[in-house]
């Protein structure tokens, strides 16, 4: 092979290797919209075992939910979410809005989205509320796990006084 042709072949190979690696990384990137949708379906069904599979189990992780102020670690969350939230509902369903934002940096990613909850309390009262949801995900082995989350609802404080 002539030297000029060998250089050309090497140049093509050198360009193909990074493109191939980039394609593999893109193919391996998770669909965070699907992951977040599954999260809300699992919690809407009240399935604690399926929920547990989505969370890292480190005892010092912090999870914020609607009630109480916070949970330290999955064990505390699992024990508290039933009496503080799930046990109050006869049924609840969640609908994600179209504002999901996902950002990934290596093995860490964060998502934010707003959602709407519709349901009925065990007292018979209807529930319709908008919520915010932010999650930090970490890739551990083959799985993306929740290492921090924040679920909140807009304030029920009175509106600000009108200004003139």
Please tell me about this protein's structure.
The chain has two domains: 29 residues; 122 residues, Nuclear Transport Factor 2, Chain: A. The chain has four helices and seven strands. Strands 1, 2, 3, 4, 5, 6 and 7 form a seven-stranded mixed β-sheet that branches. A hairpin with a 2-residue loop joins strand 4 and strand 5. 12% of the residues are buried. About 3% of the residues have low confidence.
Tally of individual domains = 2
What gyration radius follows from the Cα positions, in whole Å? 22 Å
* Whole-number mean pLDDT: 88
Q: What's the level 1 CATH class of the largest domain?
A: Alpha Beta
Write down how many β-strands occur, each being a DSSP E stretch of 2 or more residues.
7
Number of helices: 4
Give the low-confidence spans: 23-27
CATH topology of the largest domain: Nuclear Transport Factor 2, Chain: A
Shape: globular
Strand content: 25-35%
Distance between the termini: 84 Å
Task: Provide a quick synopsis of the model.
The protein is of the alpha+beta class and 164 residues long. It has 4 helices and 7 strands, in the order αααββαβββββ.
How would the blueprint of this fold be written?
Blueprint: H1 3-28, H2 32-45, H3 48-52, E1 62-64, E2 71-72, H4 73-84, E3 89-96, E4 101-105, E5 108-121, E6 126-140, E7 143-152
Parallel strand pairs: 1-7
Antiparallel strand pairs: 1-2, 3-5, 4-5, 5-6, 6-7
